[in-house]
Amino acid sequence: MKVVETGLPGCLVLEPQVFGDARGFFYESFNRDKLRASGLDLQFVQGNVSSSTQGVLRGLHYQWPKPQGKLVSVLEGEVWDVAVDIRRGSPTFGRWTAVVLSADNKRHFWIPPGFAHGFATLSERALFTYLCTETYDREADAGIRWNDARLAIDWPLGAPLLSDKDARAPFLADVPDERLPVYAP
């Protein structure tokens, strides 16, 4: 497995070793020992799968308290995946990074606890999967507006299809401090 740093410390792209021939391919989508050897000692407690059509944008989501770390990937299609540092006191607060995840590139994206997460579906359909380090908690569920000018995320969609919840999410500046994760160096 190859580990690739991104523009945000802690957010990593993981590229598995793919074995293929005329019959198809095989790769490990998760190997605790290999991740641990790379410095990631992850304990997942929940797995999720979502399906989205082209033009759908999901996010920017996070949980506080009970923040979730997420290891995300795409089994079918292609998405533009984004992580935003929203940890109070972080030297990279409000910065984002993005990576294209697809069934073709087989990349995984590690988004640590304390980051908001979202993605835009680029293909006709995308089957998205993520492993989480904390279970979903409705009371801790939160979000940031996808088009917050302060974040200036360069989304590859002009007029995305949004849920009502995502369309009404607050701007980062409007989120009370106690509803944001805390940076712990």
Notes on the protein architecture:
- The protein has helices spanning 32-37, 164-167; strands spanning 2-5, 12-15, 19-21, 24-26, 46-53, 57-63, 70-76, 78-85, 96-102, 108-111, 115-121, 125-132, 141-143.
- It is mainly beta and 185 residues long.
- The strands form three sheets. It has a six-stranded antiparallel beta sheet with strand order 1-2-10-7-12-5, with no helix packed on it.
Mean pLDDT: 96
The percent range for strand residues is 35-45%
Shape: globular
> Going across the major beta sheet, what is the strand order?
1-2-10-7-12-5
CATH architecture: Sandwich
Biggest sheet character: 6 strands, antiparallel
Can you say what the CATH homologous superfamily is? Answer: Jelly Rolls
CATH T-level topology: Jelly Rolls
The percent range for helix content is: under 10%
The residue ranges in which pLDDT falls below 50 over 5 or more consecutive positions are: none
Strand-helix topology:
Elements: E1 2-5, E2 12-15, E3 19-21, E4 24-26, H1 32-37, E5 46-53, E6 57-63, E7 70-76, E8 78-85, E9 96-102, E10 108-111, E11 115-121, E12 125-132, E13 141-143, H2 164-167
Antiparallel strand pairs: 1-2, 2-10, 3-4, 5-12, 6-11, 6-13, 7-10, 7-12, 8-9, 8-11
Keywords:
185 residues, mainly beta, Jelly Rolls, six-stranded antiparallel sheet, 13 strands, globular
Summarize the model shown.
About 5% of the residues lie in helices and about 40% in strands. It is built from 2 helices and 13 strands, in the order ββββαβββββββββα.
